[in-house]
Model the fold of this input.
Amino acid sequence: MTDRDHDQIDHCIRASLDTYFEDLGTTEPGGLYAMVLRAVEKPLLDVVMRRTEGNQSRAAEWLGLNRTTLRKKLLEHRLLDK
Done:
């Protein structure tokens, strides 16, 4: 990943979080860390699996995950049939 790629992703995340906080108004968030991880993880896994044409070994390598961990996460997010 280049610095430019990182900056683009960083910008999108910051913009989304700013919008989220603006929408909250004076309400304080709870469980923000877990919420953001859940929101990012499923689309990340979905896109990577499509880009690797369903190749779990290659997807795990791209993600820097163990293949078993990837499979567990795919099942958790219902992106894989048992």
Observations:
- Helices lie at 3-24, 32-51, 56-63, 67-76.
